[in-house]
Structures are given as structure tokens and as C-alpha cells.
Amino acid sequence: YFISLVFSELHCILLHLYDCTSAARYRFQKPQSIEEFLNPFIIDLLEIIDNGLTMNDTLFTLEISNISCDAPAKAFLLNVKSHNAYFGCTSCTEEGTYLEHRMTFPGLDTPLRTNETFRNKTDEEYHKGDSPLIRLPINIVEIVVLDYMHNVCLGVVKRLIEMWVKGNKQVRLEKVKKEKINFELNNLKQHVPAELCRLPRSIDDIEYYKATELRTFLLYSVYAIKILTCADTCCTYNDLASQFLKEFVRDYSVLYGSHLITYNVHSLIHLPMFVLKHGPLDNFSCFQYENYLVLT
Predict the structure, then answer these.
(1) Is residue 243 part of a domain?
(2) What is the rounded average pLDDT of the residues 46-51?
(3) What Cα–Cα distance (Å) separates residue 175 from each residue in 165, 178, 181, 248, 289?
(4) Which of 118, 128, 200, 267 has the most CB atoms lying inside 10 A of its own CB?
């Protein structure tokens, strides 16, 4: 059995066992510490991992596939500095640069973090203390994934469209171009498959866009993400997707300013690595959990 965890704004842990999602633990107030919140769950989880789970006279074994959450919850879970700290990237050792009141991560080829360096707390500027996850038999750096729902859809894509619609003159779309995009989105409605639950709408409504709408916009416009969401291409053309995403980050810096290469934009370059480990992006995204909580 494979299991996935996610922290939501309700401070809950959701488990996904194949096609079944359920809540394992929740709180309506933010926990004072990660140990207070997670340790009871870790104890139960270790019991099942060590001894299995017997149901109807059948012994089932359990393996943790991935742990998925947004950036603040991820930092809390790992007990590391936040994503807007100088050493806030959870995938590589890039030291951030503070520009125009933002923490930026311009590097594209910085050495990656490893399970060993995490457990040994090699990067003293990154760790705040021990994470309860070190008690689990997992590769922490690989299992605690980047979630493309928060990182890409709600992070990068929404920010981009907001700049096109409401940004300064240097990046804001001309009225004619914006109307053309809206026209094409409207025409696209009749071709959207049933699997995509929300139809396209005007980018003028960007402040009301849900994550699923941003995903639809993304999948119809960004080739690299199409590659990484498809089981037939995500590994075969992984290197190509990686090249595209690095090129996107470089161009983003030129077009919108190096001060906007924040954690979400920088993290795009790490997505292909997680796809090689876990398969297509939707295998380890928060979409299924947000759907369970009726938030998307």
C-alpha cells in the first residue's frame, strides 16, 4: 500500500490509499510545534510499517509514496527555515538574494539536497531543529515533494496572469492582446474534456480563479508541464522538460525582473526530478486532497 500526506489550511493530515482518501488527524488551531501535531501519527504509522495491517485475515504492508503540502506547511513539517528565508529552497542549497523586498533564488545548477545531508543537518542555515520525519524509513528529500498545484498553478501561473492583467505597463497586456486571449479561451469551452471540471473564463476574472482553472490554462499553454503530466512522456522527455523550465526561469528574469525569481518560480527547475521519482505530476499533487476537502 502507498500512502500520501498533505497539510491543509485546516491543519489536517489526509491519507490516500490508491483511490480512497480520508482524514487521519486534524486540528482547527495551528499546532504549537510539529512534534505535538505529528508524533502521535508517526507512532501509529511506524507500527503499521513495522508490523503491517491485518484486514479480513489478510496482512497488508505499507510504504510511504510521497508527502505533499504547500510551502509553509512543508517548512513546518521538515522543521526548516521558511521558503522566503535565505536558505529556503527545500530541493537545493541555493543561497537566496534579497531584492526589492523579496527573497529570490536565481541559481539554476546549485547542488541538490540529499537524504544524508538532511538527516545530518549539514546545512546549519537551513535547519531549525529535528523533524519527526527522520524517524520514518524514507528518503526525506525525495518523498517530501514539490506540489505543482500550489507551486505552479496557484503560485507561478496565477502570478503571471495577474501581471498580464493588472501589472505595470512594462508587462501588462495591451487591450487588443488581452481580448484575443479571452476570445480564444471562450472558444475553447466547447473542446474542454469532461475530466476538466471547470470551463475556461476571462483572464479579467483571475482573482476568482480556482486551482483547477489555473491547471486548465496551464495545460493548454505550457508544453513543459504537458510533458510532466503525461505518463507516456514524463520520463522519456524529462530532460527536455527540464531544459524548457530552466529556459522559462531565465526568460522570466529578463521579462519580469530578477527580483521576481522567488521560491515558486525557482522551484520549477526541480519539478522534473520529482517526476522521475514519482511519475506524472498528478501522482503527487494536492489536487486530490483539495477535492476531498471541496476547496478547488
Answers:
(1) yes
(2) 92
(3) 9, 5, 10, 24, 38
(4) 267
From residue 160, how far is each of 143, 152, 153, 212 by CA, in Å? 29, 10, 10, 16
Q: Terminal CA-to-CA distance of the chain, rounded, Å?
A: 26
Decide if 296 is inside a domain.
no
* Residue 264: other Cβ atoms inside 10 A: 21
The mean pLDDT value for 219-242 works out to 93
**How many domains does the chain fold into?**
1
CA-wise closest residue to 49 among 122, 137, 113: 137
Tell me whether residue 185 is exposed, middle or buried, using C-beta atoms within 10 angstroms of its C-beta: 0 to 12, 13 to 18, 19 or more.
middle
- Coil vs helix vs strand at 191: helix
pLDDT band at 3 (very low <50, low <70, confident <90, very high): very low
Domain that holds residue 89: 3-289
CB atoms within 10 A of CB 87: 20
pLDDT at 145 > cutoff 70: yes
- Residue 108 placed within a domain: yes
| Contact by Cβ (8 Å): 172, 162 | no
Question: pLDDT-based confidence at 38, cuts 50/70/90?
Answer: confident
- The pLDDT value recorded for residue 289 is 81
Inside any domain, residue 295 = no
Label residue 193 by pLDDT band (50, 70, 90): confident
pLDDT mean over 155-161: 96
